[in-house]
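Re: the 165-residue chain
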Amino acid sequence: MIDITYDVRIDSNGKDPDSASKKLKNFHKLLWSKRLPNGKMFKLDDNEIRAYLYHKSELGEYYLSSDSVTHTYSKWKRTQHIIEKFSPEEIKYFYDIAHTVGGYLIFPGNKVNSLQTINQERGMNKKINDRIDLTLECIRRAYINQDSPLYDTIKRYWDFFCIIL
């Protein structure tokens, strides 16, 4: 059972829930282990020590990691003019929701040719600023072979994005 209200910081012991929350990891395993539209089973293993979650089958081999996809931007100097329009209670409420399973996704987590992963690149790329809306737009553009700030990074992991086709 996936509890969509569970705050994954609870079992993270003050560490990053992406790597420390066993509940979040189990939720991801339950959510993303499934039969794909192509009829093949995508089953995730949480016992591989080299990966947060792991899959190996005729579909390919995937080392997956978790990444937070929501931010309050409440501590960024350049967004203070927006943040100040919200009460501390509203910011806390949003921040709490961001720490439930809905605030996280899995992406390939292994480095290819020693280059940044998708999670690293979307966090470091100034045109993306760790925004999930822009990340998803870059993924959409990759499917139609259109350039984007993450195009090369996404193409390094293209086999992952094609397993549902």
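Residues 112-165 form one domain.
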